[in-house]
Each structure stands twice: as C-alpha cells, then as structure tokens.
Design the sequence.
C-alpha cells in the first residue's frame, strides 16, 4: 500500500516526467514542421487513384508558405494541447489536484483534440482548392473521405471531455468537503 508521502512523491516524479515529455514533444513538433518546409519534402494528398504528390520545391515561395500554413494548423492545436498539459503539471506540482482550473485545462485539451479531427479532415480539400485556384492542379484528385478523417483525435477528445466533467464534479465535492470541515 502506498502512503500519502509516497503518493506525493509519485505525483511529483510523474509531473516532472510529463513536463519533460511536453517540452520534447513541442520541440519535435516544431522541428518536424520546419524541416517539412525547408527540406525538399513533398505535399502528399491521398486520393481514389492512389496518392497525389508534388515536391515543395516545385512551388513558388508564396505558394509553399500557404500550403505550409494549411498543413500546420493542426500542429498549432497540438502545441496548445501540450501547453494545457504543462499547465496541469503546474497545478499538480502546487498540490492543486481537484480544481475547476484543472477541469478547464482538460476541457481545453478535449476541444483542441476534437478540433484536430476537423482540421485534419479539412486539410486535403483546402489544399486541393488552393492548388486548383493557383492552377498548380489542372484536375483535382478525388478524395477518399475515410482517408481524410482521423477518428483517433475525436476519441481522445471525447475521453478528455469526460475527464473534464469528472474533474468538475470532483472539484465541487472538494469545495463542499472544505466547507464542512
């Protein structure tokens, strides 16, 4: 059986590990995004006919930046998720476990993850629209809807939303308990 001081130490070590992983994940996300932009990577769009691909070096600088912006919106949402994890770590390291602030952080994580499903589903159609508008694409590839929807983020988002609701309830119970003592 774990005693209270041991449990506090486990939380402290877990918070430290999560902070380290958040920083590493943020650095890797930014590095991956920048390497995609500056290396001779390709824009890849799944379609019924297989995969449409074009090296970024074939695009003008302005077109490359616009495609990069469309591609990387979900990265911004992911960095927001990491920031919310960082905020949770701050609260936990201060001993603030069942608070309305933590519930808000979980809710923000949920919304960001669910928005990533929408963002990633809209990315290929937006890229195709832009490429047709700029006449880089003469005929748009036919998208396969199942390949553009990532249900994993939606599932994780719903789970974090549920955790947010549980944390809201726990914070209310904590407040009631503090008032009765």
Sequence:
């Amino acid at each position: 059986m774990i005693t209270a001081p041991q449990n506090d130490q486990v939380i402290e070590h877990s918070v430290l590990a999560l902070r380290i992983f958040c920083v590493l994940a943020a650095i890797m996300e930014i590095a991956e995004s920048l390497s995609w932009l500056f290396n001779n990577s390709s824009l890849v769009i799944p379609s019924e006919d297989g995969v449409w691909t074009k090296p970024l070096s074939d695009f003008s600088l302005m077109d490359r930046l616009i495609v990069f912006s469309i591609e990387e919106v979900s990265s911004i949402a992911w960095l927001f998720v990491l920031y919310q994890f960082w905020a949770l770590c701050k609260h936990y390291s201060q001993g603030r476990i069942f608070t309305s602030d933590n519930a808000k952080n979980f809710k923000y994580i949920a919304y960001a993850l669910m928005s990533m499903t929408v963002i990633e589903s809209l990315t290929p159609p937006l890229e195709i629209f832009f490429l047709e508008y700029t006449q880089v694409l003469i005929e748009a590839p036919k998208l396969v809807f199942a390949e553009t929807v990532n249900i994993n983020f939606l599932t994780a988002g719903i789970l974090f939303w549920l955790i947010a609701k549980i944390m809201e309830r726990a914070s209310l119970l904590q407040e009631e308990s503090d008032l009765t003592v």
Notes: Helices lie at 4-38, 61-71, 73-93, 100-133, 145-148, 151-180. The mean pLDDT is 88. The beta strands are 42-47, 50-55.
